[in-house]
Write a structure and sequence with these properties.
By secondary structure, this protein is mainly β. It has a single domain, classed as Immunoglobulin-like (Sandwich). The chain is about 5% helix and about 30% strand. It has helices spanning about 10-15, 160-165, and strands at about 40-45, 50-55, 65-70, 100-105, 115-120, 125-135, 140-145, 145-150, 170. Strands 3, 4, 6, 7, 8 and 9 form a 6-stranded antiparallel β-sheet that branches. Strands 1-2-5 form a 3-stranded antiparallel β-sheet, with no helix packed on it. It is globular. Keywords: Repeat, Secreted.
């Protein structure tokens, strides 16, 4: 008999299903390996951008990460479950009504301990829900913990022109 327990209070309140993967092999053929700590950190948030960080996957196979961003409505009545790690992160994610953007950078050959990325084109004062997923070329993606960020309302020192340079690598809704 195996007992499963949510790892944090938010998950205790909202958890209603789990996904369980079992194998007799050392690695799952269709799933990437995640680090022990799957936290996504908010490094720096301004008015139009936020920099995030997460621990690099120990996966030795070819891997990419996807950063998926959803806009959270002001009334906080969202159809997005913050802890829904069983969400379909496939191609249909861009059809979600609160989808904002997705970016899928490749993992470096000699990755640092912490991966980082900056998300651009965000709206001042808005809140966003950010998922980072680890993806093999074949198989299902696995998500890190989700991160909710609240953008600053006023940033007089922030220059929008400099922040928008990298927008061509995003797929915006």
């Amino acid at each position: 008999m195996i007992r499963f327990k949510p790892s944090n209070d938010d998950e205790v309140l909202r958890a209603n299903k789990i996904g369980l993967a079992v194998t007799t092999n050392r690695v799952f053929s269709q799933l990437p390996e995640l680090p022990e700590n799957i936290t996504v950190f908010e490094v720096r948030t301004k008015c139009h951008s936020t920099k995030i960080a997460w621990y690099s996957s120990p996966e030795i196979r070819t891997l990419s990460y996807c950063i998926i961003v959803f806009n959270l409505p002001q009334r906080n009545r969202s159809s997005i479950d913050y802890t829904n790690y069983c969400m379909d992160f496939g191609k249909r994610v861009v059809q979600h009504p609160q989808f904002h953007s997705i970016k899928c950078p490749k993992k470096a050959k000699n990755p640092p301990l912490l991966e980082t990325d900056t998300i651009f084109n965000l709206t001042p004062g808005e809140s966003y829900l950010i998922y980072v997923t680890a993806n093999l070329s074949e198989g299902k993606p696995l998500p890190y913990q989700s991160l909710k960020v609240k953008m600053h309302h006023q940033c007089p020192e922030e220059v929008l022109g400099a922040e928008s340079r990298d927008q061509s690598t995003y797929y915006l809704n």
